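Renewal narrative, Specific Aim 1. Our central claim is that a sequence can be written position by position from structural information alone. The example that follows is taken directly from our test logs and has not been curated for this report. It begins with the structure tokens describing the chain, in the order in which they were read.
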């Protein structure tokens, strides 16, 4: 069953994988997402349309990187859609070695290891001090 859930990014579609049941608190995987309602056929169609738009947007992004050859890419790891910033950079790395600076709320070791596999010039955890960010960018570009 597909449901609409409330997340930090707003409402998203989710899949119910187990029936409703009482569960001991220590077995809960937090944070739990609040179920708003069962998803409609329109919701499911909108998700598919959005996935197509995400693919088109990422292809356009790749096209713009090729066209403009930027000196630096600022990349958030948490993106809307199926790809995260690390996966996006892995694809970008297939055609350019543009420096990447990750700005992210993800400080866990697994995410950090995945990001470092793309050879970033920096990895900054939010909230980021603006003065430090400016200094880091200046050092990268000089």
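The sequence written for that structure reads:
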């Amino acid at each position: 069953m597909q449901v609409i859930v409330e997340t930090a990014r707003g409402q998203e579609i989710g899949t119910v994988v187990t029936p409703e049941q009482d569960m001991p608190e220590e077995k809960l995987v937090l944070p739990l997402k609040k179920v708003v309602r069962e998803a409609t056929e329109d919701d499911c169609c909108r998700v598919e349309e959005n996935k197509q738009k995400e693919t088109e947007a990422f292809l356009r992004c790749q096209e713009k990187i090729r066209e403009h050859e930027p000196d630096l890419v600022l990349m958030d790891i948490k993106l809307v859609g199926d790809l995260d910033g690390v996966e996006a950079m892995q694809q970008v790395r297939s055609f350019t070695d543009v420096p990447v600076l990750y700005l992210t709320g993800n400080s866990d070791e697994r995410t950090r290891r995945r990001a470092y596999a793309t050879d970033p010039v920096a990895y900054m955890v939010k909230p980021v001090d603006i003065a430090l960010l400016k200094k880091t960018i200046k050092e990268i570009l000089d």
